[in-house]
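Predict structure. Chain length: 445.
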Amino acid sequence: MDKQRDFVLRTIEERGVKFVRLWFTDVVGTLKSVAIAPAEVEGAFAEGLGFDGSAIEGLTRTYESDLLAHPDPSTFQVLPWRGDVDATARMFCDITTPDGQPAVADPRHVLRRTLAKAADAGFTFYTHPEIEFYLLKSSTFGPDGPEPVDSAGYFDNVPGGTAHDFRRRSVRMLEDLGISVEYSHHEGGPGQNEIDLRYADALATADNIMTFRTVVKEVAIEQGVYATFMPKPLSGRPGSGMHTHMSLFEGDVNAFFEEGAQYQLSKVGRQFIAGLLRHANEIAAVTNQFVNSYKRLWGGDEAPSFICWGHNNRSALIRVPMYKPNKGQSSRVEYRALDSAANPYLAYALLLAAGLKGIEEGYELPPEAEDNVWSLSDTERRALGYAPLPASLDHALEYMEDSELVAETLGEQVFNYVLANKRREWEEYRSQVTPFELKRNLEML
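Prediction complete.
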């Protein structure tokens, strides 16, 4: 740690950094930032930076509002979009109470706590997200809704297109920040893009996702367009998911790999999937945390709607990707419900907790889905045991409030805050009279 701190202080001096932003997230997953002068960094390392936690969504109760942000020197990076004028760097922070205890409602701590539980069982948790988002001409919209920057489709190559320059600039910036990118391409919707981050341990991935969203927003502003991670911004078009590939390692060995087993998937891997399936509905209010998230889940276009798994089956909630011969380390499972607007710290904590529960309790993996699940009738799906995911945020909250797994993983304060905050969102949504109702009913009734 001292070496890392020395490196940070030396780099600030050598690069002429004028501001250091301390980053953390609230319970919803909104990035928070406070800038300090270089002279204050050493003090922040030693003692943390005090702030009023009650002003941040869900972070603390008013009567215990004093919190400290402790910068994590291993996350230090100079921000490339700031340029050389007034060079600015950032570090992620861990939040504590004044007596040095981790703040129970710090999302980064929630994930750290779950990773520690995995470590006690001998596992390291790796994740690899595929992050989709839309590029729009602006954040304002007319009666036809938001206007995408192009009308291209999946993998389309658009000569001179906005998306090309945008992705090239974003990927270069991410690489400058030490975030490795595996792929980038145009997605299925007009103006929709996907950038996949290389796999890393889950805490680094969650930090990278928060940085990624900021980079994408900054590049969009620079290029005169608007980027959104809203799960379903365009009616009748694909939603934006954050399919995440996951694996557990025991030391250098992939715990999901077993040579000669079906799909080379070990017993541990099968139990992990069984845990994800059994608890999918309970964790949905976090993996899909907005009213709009359920428009994506139930809108077709490759979003999963039913709880089942399959080998290379893109209609299933969980996919076991094609095994590459001689690449045992690449055995993994892909969770397809997660959307791009989730709080990555809380979502990964719950996905890991659900998988670990499957391993601890020895859950049996049900038979795989071999058909296109969307093309089956409701009767066929029922007969095969493919239960639906929640149809709405309200429905997801009903599952969550009865879940011991979610309450235990998030901790009482975060659990209660998420429930209260999301119930409020649902009530506001439910009480609206929408254009759909007016168009359909006003003249007829």
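Summary: The radius of gyration is 22 Å.
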